[in-house]
Specification:
Layout: E1 6-13, E2 15-18, E3 33-34, E4 45-47, E5 50-56, E6 65-71, E7 81-85, E8 92-95, E9 109-117, E10 124-132, E11 140-149, E12 158-159, E13 181-183, E14 195-198, E15 204-207, E16 212-214, E17 217-220, E18 224-228, E19 233-236, E20 248-251, E21 257-260, E22 278-282, E23 287-291, E24 302-305, E25 311-314, E26 326-330, E27 335-338, E28 350-353, E29 359-362, E30 374-378, E31 383-387, E32 398-401, E33 407-410, E34 418-419, E35 422-423, E36 433-437, E37 442-445, E38 457-460, E39 466-469, E40 472-476, E41 480-483, E42 487-491, E43 496-499, E44 511-514, E45 520-523, E46 526-527, E47 530-531, E48 535-538
Parallel strand pairs: 1-17, 5-11
Antiparallel strand pairs: 1-2, 3-4, 4-6, 6-9, 7-10, 8-9, 10-11, 12-23, 13-48, 14-15, 15-18, 16-17, 18-19, 20-21, 21-22, 22-23, 24-25, 25-26, 26-27, 28-29, 29-30, 30-31, 32-33, 33-36, 34-35, 36-37, 38-39, 39-42, 40-41, 42-43, 44-45, 45-48, 46-47
Length: 540
């Protein structure tokens, strides 16, 4: 696997067709140029295009996107008047925001033109953004485009798309001798960066994820299945409304599962735009239906069930830019509402519900580097406040609430994982771990893991120890990721890690779900550069 991370999302209905929007989210590419590049005493203007991903028809995309108007000349750009024209102009609209363009723009500076998108139907839309001003060649123009979908509309309240196996490693696992890890049923679909949620009846819902990894491509299709521990088998269930990976799945108090955000393909070759689309899985009907959408498109975010049954969605990224914004999902209303912002943008962070009802947000990356900072969300006051910082910056780490109320933070990397849509130059993952004590608000070092790792799992066991599995140690050209089958146990009493039996397959971006009998279901992930269909159980 190469460093660039792209994906396809594929829907199947008779024929395989690409699923996705009309291109990059935001300000990719460049628009028209007027004024000769800034030489002489004249303004010179450039304008960037705007591309909206899939948006439910009749709904407005959750947040305005922006076109950048730049004055590259050495005198002021005056008499600025933006407008929208073209065949689908009625589906786009101008609005306001921070650093919005006024009537004048100083030399060698830029401003933003905010655009909203409300598709009238499930099709593609295009229009032209024009800016009249005093630059030569006025007006400047840039393309506006977007795609409407019937997700969440009255025309398609539920989702029933056919799934296929596209690729990946479909083999199961096997073992010889006595091991704490034992083989179990094989999934219908190879997958990685998926979610696996323990349902109220003791079964496990597995949703979406990347299904094939060929060089730069991580392919995913809308696909879900349910694991029954009593039979040791996976079975097909309803099909998710969209394909996604790096999303969240949250078991609600009513027994349904909230699937939110993530990335999905939106035209090749592009970076993956995050999606604002959310859906609910109903175990009673074994089907998915659209809810929401979120206030912002986001991926690599966190979703935390609060004590009152609502869900805190925090941070993440647009797939390029990290977010400080948060929002709350209300299951009773089926809507997301904007909430307080965190003190720092962060993605690839962790969020842990504390016994006090507060949510501990730790680390991640902010577009510049990994973060050591942490903050607490108070649902009662809807505010964030800073708390102690970790001993080292971390992104892609794990966070586990221990029985004593402390939080174990383990592994990760001390640099960014993703930057501008590509994996950052590799740095060795961390083997260190630390504990957060809510009583003092401070982090302190604890024992060191036996293996450095990132993209691993950490699961609390019934004996109050923590099972750490898999992950990867490095990206090595040309072999790709060095995935791990190593597993280890953290003992809070001694503050130390000790090796346990290895998994039956090396895995990262896999799932680890505690079952009702105390064992742990390990499923999917990437090994030898291929997503896996295999699963195994750690017998407690």
């Amino acid at each position: 696997m190469k460093r660039t991370r792209l994906a396809f999302a594929i829907f199947v209905s008779g024929l395989i067709t690409a699923c996705g929007g009309a291109g990059n989210v935001g300000n990719a590419g460049s628009g028209s140029n007027a004024g000769g590049g800034g030489s002489g005493s004249a303004p010179a203007a450039t304008l960037s295009p705007v591309f909206f991903p899939d948006t439910p028809m009749g709904s407005t995309y959750p947040s305005p996107l922006t076109a950048t108007l730049s004055n590259t000349g050495n005198v002021s750009l005056n008499n600025i008047v933006p407008s929208i024209t073209g065949k689908d102009a009625v589906d786009f609209a101008l609005t306001t925001g921070d650093n919005a363009c006024g009537s004048t723009l100083a030399a060698e500076s830029s401003c933003l033109i905010y655009v909203t998108f409300t598709p009238a139907s499930a099709t593609s839309f295009s229009a032209t953004l024009s800016v009249a001003d005093n630059a030569s060649g006025s007006p400047q123009t840039a393309a506006l485009s977007g795609s409407g979908s019937n997700f969440g509309s009255g025309a398609d309240p539920t989702c029933d798309t056919i799934s296929i196996i596209w690729g990946g490693n479909t083999n199961g696992t096997s073992s010889s001798g006595t091991s704490a890890f034992v083989p179990t049923g094989t999934m219908y679909q190879p997958r990685a960066a998926h979610t696996a949620t323990l349902l109220s009846d003791g079964t496990v819902l597995v949703v979406d994820g990347g299904q094939l990894d060929i060089d730069d491509l991580l392919v995913s299709i809308p696909s879900a299945e349910v694991f029954d521990p009593s039979q040791g088998k996976f079975s097909a269930t309803g099909t998710p409304c969209i394909a996604r990976e790096l999303h969240t799945a949250t078991l609600l108090m009513n027994g349904k599962v909230l699937i939110a955000g993530g990335t999905r393909f939106s035209g090749y070759p592009t970076w993956l735009p995050a999606t604002p689309i959310a859906e609910l899985y109903d175990p009673a009907s074994r089907s998915f239906a659209i809810t929401g959408p979120m206030q912002a498109a986001r991926t690599e975010h966190t979703a935390t069930l609060l004590a009152d049954g609502r869900v805190l969605i925090a941070g993440g990224s647009t797939s390029v830019d990290p977010l400080a914004s948060t929002e709350i999902y209300d299951p009773a209303a089926g809507t997301f509402v904007a909430s307080a912002s965190m003190s720092s943008p962060r993605s690839n962070h962790t969020a842990t519900m504390l016994p006090s009802g507060e949510v501990l947000i730790v680390g991640g990356e902010n577009g510049v580097g990994a973060l050591a900072s942490a903050e607490l969300y108070d649902p009662g006051t809807n505010t964030f406040r800073s708390t102690g910082s970790m001993t080292t910056p971390r992104s892609g780490h794990s966070a586990t609430l221990l029985a004593n109320g402390k939080v174990l933070i383990a592994g990760g990397v001390s640099s960014q994982i993703f930057a501008d849509g590509t994996l950052s130059p590799s740095t060795d993952p961390l083997a260190t771990a630390e504990l957060y004590d809510p009583a003092t608000g401070y982090f302190s070092l604890t024992g060191t893991m036996t293996t450095s790792r990132i993209a691993h799992t950490a699961t609390l066991l019934p004996n109050e120890n923590v099972l750490i599995t898999g992950g990867y140690t490095d990206w090595v050209n040309p072999a790709g990721y060095q995935s791990l089958n190593d597993a280890e146990i953290y003992d809070p009493m001694s503050g130390s890690f000790t090796s346990t039996d290895p998994m039956l397959a090396s895995r990262f971006w896999h799932s680890a779900t505690p079952l009702q009998d105390g064992s742990v279901l390990i499923a999917g992930g990437i090994s030898a550069d291929l997503p896996l269909a295999s699963a195994e159980i750690y017998k407690y």
